[in-house]
C-alpha cells in the first residue's frame, strides 16, 4: 500500500541512520520498525507449551495450594514419629 506519512525530523533521522547502518532501503527500516512497535500479529497464535501431569503421591486431604499447611503436617508427622521412637526406647 502506498501512503503519505509525516514523520518527525528526529524520528526520520534515526530511521535514515538505521537504513544506512544496515544497508537497507529506508522503507524496509520503516516497515520493520512499525511492525516491532505494533507487537505480534494477532492472527499468529503463539505456541502453548504442553504440560504433562504428574502424581506426587500427596494425600487427597492436603490442599496443595496451601503449602504452609503441608509443611506443618509433614513436620508434625516427623515429630510424632520421633516421640514414638523415644517412647519405645
Query: What proportion of the residues form beta strands (DSSP E)?
Result: under 5%
Largest sheet: none
> Rg from C-alpha positions?
31 Å
State the separation between the terminal residues, measured CA to CA: 88 Å
Query: What percent of residues adopt helix (DSSP H or I)?
Result: 55-70%
Count of alpha and pi helical runs = 3
Count of distinct strands = 0
Low-confidence stretches: none
Oligomer: single chain
What structural category characterises the helix and strand content? Answer: mainly alpha
Shape: rod-shaped
Element pattern in H and E: HHH
Query: Please, what is the average pLDDT?
Result: 86
In short:
The chain is 55% helix and 0% strand. 0% of the residues are buried. The chain starts with 8 loop residues before the first helix and ends with a helix.
From the structure above, extract its key features.
89 residues, mainly alpha
Amino acid at each position: 500500500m502506498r501512503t503519505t506519512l509525516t514523520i518527525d525530523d528526529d524520528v526520520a533521522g534515526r530511521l535514515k541512520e538505521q537504513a544506512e547502518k544496515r544497508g537497507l532501503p529506508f522503507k524496509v527500516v520503516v516497515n520493520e520498525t512499525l511492525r516491532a512497535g505494533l507487537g505480534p500479529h494477532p492472527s499468529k497464535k503463539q505456541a502453548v507449551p504442553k504440560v504433562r501431569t504428574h502424581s506426587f503421591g500427596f494425600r487427597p486431604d492436603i490442599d496443595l495450594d496451601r503449602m504452609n499447611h503441608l509443611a506443618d503436617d509433614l513436620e508434625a508427622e516427623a515429630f510424632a514419629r520421633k516421640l514414638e521412637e523415644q517412647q519405645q526406647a
